[in-house]
Amino acid sequence: MCRGHFVNKVYENIVGKLNLSLRRKVPQVLQTEAAECGLASLAMVCGYYGMHIDMLSMRQKFDISARGATLSSLIAIAENLNLKTRALSLSLDEI
């Protein structure tokens, strides 16, 4: 590896950690169970708005069945987290 390539990698690593942009980033929250996608999505939305909550806390606070969450249960959880919600219906072409 040449010195210039190494210096570029170090620079990219430092800049990536500084987050100098004015845009907020969506944190990555990983689910461990297939049925946790709704909780993980809500945890990422919370993180975007500055309310960082981990999956362990989400699991402890909100009971999700092994079959996952319904739209109405996700709305209730979101409202419990002080998020405002509304359901929309879009076709694939509109996304």
TrEMBL record:
It holds the Pfam family Peptidase_C39. Residues 26-94 form the Peptidase C39 domain. Gene3D superfamilies: Cysteine proteinases (3.90.70.10). InterPro entries: Peptidase_C39 (IPR005074). GO terms for biological process: proteolysis. GO terms for cellular component: membrane. It comes from the Bacteria. Transmembrane segments: none annotated. One of its GO terms (molecular function) is ATP binding. This is Colicin V synthesis protein.
